[in-house]
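>> received
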Amino acid sequence: MTKHTPGPIPKLALEDVTSGYGPIAIVKSLSLLIRPGEIFALMGKNGMGKTTLLKTVLGVVPVRSGDIRLDGKSILGTPPKTHVAAGVGYAPQEQPLFQDLSVRDNLRLAVQSDKMLDAPLERVFGHFPFLKDRLGQKAGTLSGGEQKMLIIARALMLGPDLLLIDEISEGLQPTVIARIAEALCAERAQNGTTILLVEQNLNFALEVADRWAVLKMGEIDDSGDVGEGTRGRVLEHLKI
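>> returned
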């Protein structure tokens, strides 16, 4: 009899997860596996539940039913700070920067003390070298693209094993999007970081992702590996 060899434990597993706000279910009986070290693109139109899904993983939106497992262990009912301590980073769509604080101070907020600052700074400088020369500059004086890169940099300061990114390319110039794409691919290659990328920019998403899924009304409408024919398949589901 042939023995079955189990595959690697998923970095993130959602099993029949339902979540939402008040009486309204936004994410509905959703199951999704994210493999260790991959970049996974979650796409869909506005209002389909993409951001709610990320906030559910982070523990901000409570799970009504189902289970969420990180490295094989359930994280249901644990607060966001526990998820962060377990290696989950988050770069939200709404800009969470303190505009009147310096770039350094915004990055400093991600670590517990100045003694822990040097190594994380070198890590983010490797991806976004311009930040090294802007440490004393107020975050609010950066361009829109530079602020988005600062948001990613701050999420990387804790050295997350799993990075959740929400619509980071929205409103950005192609050159800035290309720079972010390069940084995400480098982060994965250098540190093995798993990335769950919520995105509407199809070109950007499919350039960096290994696998994809389309979310429609809180449910997975389709999914697959990125390859030949993926673009047309996704466009069909998005009805663009």
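>> The helical segments are 50-58, 80-85, 103-108, 118-127, 144-156, 174-191, 202-208, 230-238.
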